[in-house]
Structure prediction request, 126 residues.
Amino acid sequence: MTQDTIRRLVAGDGMLFPRDQASVMPKIASPVQKFYVNRGDHVKQGQLWPCWRTATSPPKAAEGQGAVDLAESNLRTTSGASVPEAVVKAQTDVERIPQAMDAAKKVFDSRAELFKEWCAGAAPGG
Prediction:
């Protein structure tokens, strides 16, 4: 009898999702002058990570670009985060279909019976 280790490498595509995630929305609309952290970095409470431009009236083009950048960031975050939620919703919907079908069949059968009774009562001599 021989004892040995069996190894098998499997390659495949997959998606990684964060265990914890938070959406951060700024309370001011001003272009960012400098970031002190990069996307995906771990941050600590109270840590400074963006430095906002302090101009009282930023140029409209820079303000518009900041809004576009924020919207694109939100789109990436939402697209990545909504995949698992969409899967769970789809699974829940699939599980509810037979229940909804049974309920609809009961309503149909009940109305068909009422219709038969009505037709029998409405018939001449009935």
Summary: The chain has a mean pLDDT of 77. Residues 60-122 form the longest helix (63 residues).
